[in-house]
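Bench log, entry 3. Co-assembly request; chain sequences pasted below exactly as received.
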Amino acid sequence: SYELTQPLSVSVALGQTARITCGGNNIGRTNVHWYQERPGQAPVVVIYRGSDRPSGIPERFSGFTSGNTATLTISRAQAEDEADYYCQVWDGTTVVFGGGTKLTVL
Amino acid sequence: EVQLLESGGGLVQPGGSLSLSCTASGFTFKAYGMSWVRQAPGKGLEWVSALSGSGDNTYYTDSVRGRFIISRDNSKNTLYLQMSTLRAEDTALYYCAKHAGFSGGDAFDIWGQGTTVTVSS
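Structure output for the full assembly:
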């Protein structure tokens, strides 16, 4: 079965750039989606199809996928960006989520 | 307003059954694939099952195949998950999620608030 690997945690200083990676075999050939989950709230998609940003999501969120790695970049990180982030793909028959990354804004 | 509202969660003994519902509003329900996604306490997101807009195509994660059945009633804008032979490891918050398109490859653009299932004696 297809697997996605994310770091357990990432820390970023307020106002700096955070990068969260998602590793998977040939992930660059798939549509990767990213979700933000704040404590006590339902997940929200922040990037879809690798690099598209839904309306209402700040421009500081961006995504890039190539080879075996997808990357979610959060520029000028704000306190409200502190959350868990999950990558997700479809392998043809199942939806696969990464294990999630806890982003801490210092 | 686009909305998903889950119901049916509760406490059930191991080996028991439970049926979840998700009522949709604010969009053309039959045009979109739908999924159930769960989150065990303190754990990450785990996809459970998906269903095409027509209901013709169903997909399951291995751990629930043969025990859970996903279905939909497009006339009632409602998604269902029938769960049987429940195990302790099925304990989780169960989310209903809408796919942005008709394909399983589309992102989940709308999520409900979830309903809690607890499997315990």
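The longest strand of chain B covers residues 18-25. The mean pLDDT of chain B is 96.
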